[in-house]
Amino acid sequence: MFDDKALLNKIRDHFQLPAFTGLSRVQHDEEPDDLRIIFKATTSDGRSYAVRMMSNSYSALKDLAGQASLCGLLSGGGLNVPTRLYGSDGRPYLILSRKGREIWATVETWLPGKEPESLTIGLAEQAGEWLGAMHRIAGQALAPIPFTSGSPWSLFGQEDELDQDAQALEKALQTSGAEPPLVRELFALYREKRSILRAGWSELPGGPVQGDFSLNNWLADENGRLCGVIDFHLAGTDVFVGHLAGEASFLAYAADKESEETSEAIGDRYLEAVIAGYERSRPLNTRERSLLNDLIGLRRAFACYQVDEVLGEIKAGNTKQVNQELKNMIFYFKKDYCRAPL
């Protein structure tokens, strides 16, 4: 295995840390186009830090600076998120070479807590409160935080992953044998909802967001309550209500998968809990609330896992199941998610 000790010493010197008295590797994912190595480092003064060495195609140095600024903004607003350290050159990162590849390193405070064992209604409400607080604080920033791209949930930009998935599915359905009326109805709904959402999209409140608000990036205390949020490497700019819809819809899906029940109502209850918690921290304005139902319908109908399910059935030649999945997607579009009191 490549010896990272020399690099760790360079990182320690650059960020002006005391001597390391303890090092443990907590993650090591190494692929040709994506490197992610994280150490927990304890220093001689008893403090602990997360030392990250990373390389990927979607992060620029400007993004690293933005991540550090967002962490500082949220921490200053009273939320328990990691604080990035700045090096001797005044930057929150260090550029290094590892195995002939350029990588960058960051150091941030290590937060106590552990990943929640499961998603509960109470935890979903707390998550909504945290997400609302993060958006509220970010929206009050005195100066824009620079990012080169939107969050993974962003719509209507060059990196609109949902639209890319929808286009791929529409193309695959052309030769799938699926019922043409179902295909026409689904994509008529898709374009109708997109058109409604696009109108005035740029005028909706937005700003920097964490980008990956999933269970594995939450920290819970000994009582199981949410006490911290980590991992800002997918942070970017987004419309707040769009980000809420994306994260809430995915959490509802995760809860549905965890449950032994098969009822659609399981996911709905978690979705409602997240949104209710969110509005306690940051109430939606009239325009945001009017769009939320369409946003959730869009997210649930064309979620990556839903599209992959249909593509898999097309590849297997299961035309009957393809038609059923299309009916499910139409159902997601037409469903009323935002019932009172939400």
Automatic annotation (TrEMBL):
Natural source organism: Paenibacillus elgii
Pfam families: APH
Gene3D superfamilies, alphabetized: 3.90.1200.10
Alphabetized InterPro entries for the sequence: Aminoglycoside_PTrfase, Kinase-like_dom_sf, Pseudomonas-type_ThrB
Domain Aminoglycoside phosphotransferase, chain residue ranges per copy: 40-284
SUPFAM superfamilies in the cross-refs: Protein kinase-like (PK-like) (SSF56112)
PANTHER family named among the record's database cross-references: AMINOGLYCOSIDE PHOSPHOTRANSFERASE DOMAIN-CONTAINING PROTEIN, AMINOGLYCOSIDE PHOSPHOTRANSFERASE DOMAIN-CONTAINING PROTEIN-RELATED
Protein known as: Aminoglycoside phosphotransferase domain-containing protein
Record-stated family: Belongs to the pseudomonas-type ThrB family.
One term of GO molecular function: amino acid kinase activity
